[in-house]
Amino acid sequence: MADTLTVSGNRALMIEEPLIFELGHPGRVGVDLPAPAPVDFDRLGGCRRSEPAALPDLAEPQAVRHYTRLSQKNYGIDTGFYPLGSCTMKHNPRLAEKMARLPGFADVHPFQPVGTIQGALEVIDSLAGWLKALTGMPAVAMTPAAGAHGEWCGLMAIRACLEARGQGHRRRVLVPESAHGTNPASAAMCGFSVDSIPAKDDGRVDLAALTAKLGDDVACLMLTNPNTCGLFESEIIAIAGAVHGAGAFFYCDGANFNAIVGRVRIADLGIDAMHINLHKTFSTPHGGGGPGAGPTVLSAELAPFAPLPFVVHGTDGFRLIEHAHDAPGHQPFGRIKGYHGQFGVFVRALAYIMSMGADGLRQASSDAVLNANYLLARLNDALSPSFAGPCMHECLFDDRFLKDTGVTTLDFAKALIDEGYHPMTMYFPLVVHGALLMEPTETESRETLDAFVAVVRALAAKAKAGQAEEFKQAPRFTPRRRLDETLAARTPILRWRPPADRQAAE
Ligand SMILES: *Cc1c(COP(=O)(O)O)cnc(C)c1O
Fold first, then answer.
1. Which of 113, 118, 298, 501 is disulfide-compatible with 497, CB 3.0–4.6 A?
2. Is the pLDDT of residue 229 over 60?
3. Which of 205, 165, 209, 216 is nearest to 183 (CA)?
4. For ligand 1, is residue 281 a contact (CB within 6 Å)?
């Protein structure tokens, strides 16, 4: 509060909002109920509270204002441009939300008899059909609940297949150094060891270094394509050939699928398994922890090891295979999630896909790539692009343009907040110094991109003109200034205590 400019701590209509417990006033209520009649018997078996629950006491308008103000503090894709890379914070049409809320979908229960959920099973089956068509792959495991979960599912199928072949000794997984952190984590969770492979100066996998690392103990390569630098792995066919030549599998991290939907079939690249983040590519709002879904497409060789349960076409309608003995020819590696997957996310994805159509999906990926290249071209001379040539759906800069200015990538991001923008992704991927990764997505207009470009260029000019102090002060116009993020992460205060309690504790 020390450096706020107003008496209240508010800034114009930006209200300084306390916790709801701090707002409460003992005895204040939002309803008017008659006092309960005294109870002379204990229906709770001696478990009745001895003192009142520590609930906040508020009148109705206070409660309404509190939650409305909190909702207004949420910066999201509905309030402004969100150039965060590596995560595809795209516009998700309201139509998909509306479909997911239809009572027939929203109220369906996983314990309902299969005869009463034929429509729901058809949604899962139709979506699976689209995912197979878009990737050219013969099978898809629908139950993974996130991208990382999909990686784990694909690796478990690979492990099961290797064991079935008598090659359980293949326990090493090759992961490029630019990979998302979930890749090595998933491999480790599957009991594999992780071996990092370097990138070349052009930001792509070093094929020679990869080939040198291949051997009889390698289970698979995990490669992201387009990779986390926003680049298409141009040698991917040769990479697949080398990996298969060494008897290993080729896992693809498909989180960046939105760059190539309708343009590249995964099967044609020699990929054996790939997860698809439905919440990044196919319309589910995310950020803040889910829900998401990470269906994993599988090659014919891996398909028999897919986890239970899965949907099949029966003689009269759809059936759900819940047990291995109901699936001749399959050796499922197990079950990875309760029930049948993230059904609400499936409904959104199918609604999105059907409303876009095959041509619309192709257009969306083309526009995403066009928008990213527009940003790259317009910022090329003001920032320092990490790699030469065009990009895919996101463009990557590093902090060379800030050299000797005293301004860091972090300062630059904080200054963007003052300008009303959510910052780009910072310091990821790790393969370049002080990364600034920007993904505009396909729905942003040229005017939005131009306005953003003008701000970024002006900030870059300020930094180069020696105005570092201004950057160190940023953000200046937010309800909170720069936080001690390390302290907040290490010593989070997650529980509110009444002031009296706090004094007693001290
Ligand atoms: C988002 C992302 C993941 C992980 O996906 P989650 O759904 O967050 O688990 C993996 N790899 C890349 C490249 C990603 O962008």
1. 501
2. yes
3. 205
4. no
